[in-house]
Amino acid sequence: MGSQQSQENNFYDKISQLNSNIYCENNEESISTPINNATTIEDKKAQLLEKRISDLMVYPPSESRNVELVERMREWASIDPKAALHWLNRLGVNNETSDLYYSVFEFYTAKYADSSIKEIDSLPEGNVKNGIIENYVLVAAKNDVVGAISWIEKLSGDHTKNNARAILLHEWARSDPQGLLDHVMLEAHLNSTERNDAIQKAASELGRKNLNILDDILTQYPEDMQPSMAAGVVASLVNENLANAKLWVESLVPGDVRDKAIQSYFKNGSRDNMENLFELAGMMRDSSKRLALLSEVVSQKGSEKPSETIKLVISSSLLNSVEKKLLIGDLYLKE
Fold it and tell me: Mind spelling out the 3-state secondary structure of the chain?
């Protein structure tokens, strides 16, 4: 314990001297891996930090020791992330070093974005590697989206790239939904799932932030984007005002756009008012999806109030006679 306290005091004394620009060269201790021959105060700080971290790694684990390890590693990485990473890679990724890797890569990716890809690819698959990629993408999404797109494409492995793109698109949709929609219009590197997901997320954010633009939000974009945009808008609206969401869906022209909006209403809206759901399902133009949604409503409502459900089906002006027979037949079969 006395040795630990002595090492700690020695470290703080020397750091204090460096910060006061009165560091004495003849007091330096020998470091196993000198950094640039310690020609500057920053280099000397890095040496002291390396020594302190090495000492801490020998101490028994404790909360105070672990907290200081992360702090000292951050300080070292802020001065020389390459040297800090080189030192850390000798230990490898494990439970004790995971937080240290996050600290180092925070500075490494910021300073050496391109070369960081090789270093990240060399890490073992797992939470640490995924977390480092996520941390970089979250920061880049706010500061340099174009750079983040290019960076992600250089990563190895489709699964890794897809996860990173999903994180980027989600964060981009939150910070700049209009910019993301414009990007989707121009770029072809997204697969259909990523593209639709990006459009829905961006449209949802636009709808949430400015309800006044909903009347003409779809007409600003190509027809192939409009169904996913409508789904995104409805996903946002149902959380703000369910009645307004229903009115907006009903105001859409019958077709693919309204069908997608209705499906989003079913997926994201409340199931308390089955009559509203039944009415919207009956507006679907796609006959197979229309019947599937109607059967879903009839099945749920019929299990609770069968007589009311039969009346609802029979009195509906949205259903033809064949659909009514099928739905009532399904209801009796389930009884």
Answer: CHHHHHHHHHHHHHHHHHHCCCCCHHHCCCCCCCCHHHCCHHHHHHHHHHHHHHHHHHCCCCHHHHHHHHHHHHHHHHHCHHHHHHHHHCCCCCCCCHHHHHHHHHHHHHHCHHHHHHHHHCCCCCHHHHHHHHHHHHHHHHHCHHHHHHHHHCCCCHHHHHHHHHHHHHHHHHHCHHHHHHHHHHCCCCCHHHHHHHHHHHHHHHHHHCHHHCCCCHHHCCHHHHHHHHHHHHHHHHHHCHHHHHHHHHHCCCCHHHHHHHHHHHHHCCCCCHHHHHHHHCCCCCHHHHHHHHHHHHHHHHHHCHHHHHHHHHHCCCCCHHHHHHHHHHHHHHC
pTM summary value: 0.67
* Chunked mean pLDDT (size 10), the chain, 335 residues: 56 49 43 52 87 91 92 95 96 94 95 91 93 92 86 89 90 89 79 86 81 71 90 88 89 93 90 84 91 86 78 85 82 57
